Amino acid sequence: MTPMNISLLEKINSIGLSYRQYLNLTAREIETADSAQLTEEEHAQLENKKLNLHRMKRIEKHYQVGEGLKNIAQSVDKPQLWMIISETWCGDSAQNIPYIFKIAELNPKIDLRIVLRDTNPDIMNLYLTNGTRSIPILVVFDEFGNELLKWGPRPMAAKQLVNDLITQGTDKIVRAQKPHLWYGRNKGKDLELEMTAMLKSMMIKTEWEG
Length: 210
Hints:
By secondary structure, the chain is α+β, with helices and mostly antiparallel strands.
């Protein structure tokens, strides 16, 4: 393991939140917010956090991992660290993280850690998307710090939808709403398909290299 990989894994393990800690952080930020002291942007973020907490709890309650993906996740036989870069106000994070959590919790060898973007720019800058700090970003590491896969910030169909809305010059409010309508209809199906394909490819590659 190189020194960089050692320090990165150590930092993720040190600062990374569990899924439950992330939920609790979101709830705490909502409860302790002083509306009278918030800027317009902070007010918007507070409302997003309220929606996000509801979304995450709902998805976690109702989502059942498909058998194919379940079998692949449970077949991981060596320790892995699944890092997600996120922020509690991010709508895309709330629409995707609970699914990833449900997959990760199927296997005790998978350790899911959520790293906050804005307080960890050194980590975020390693995983930019076309030069932007888009979130959520999932990065899977093996026990030696090797990157096994990267995903984010949205399923491919949602990415295309957002790109189309931007190209069409769609109103900012509509541009924020439409992806959530897509997520509501899709119910994690595209994310599950993408995770299945990526994990299957990862397993084949690691078996071949091993």
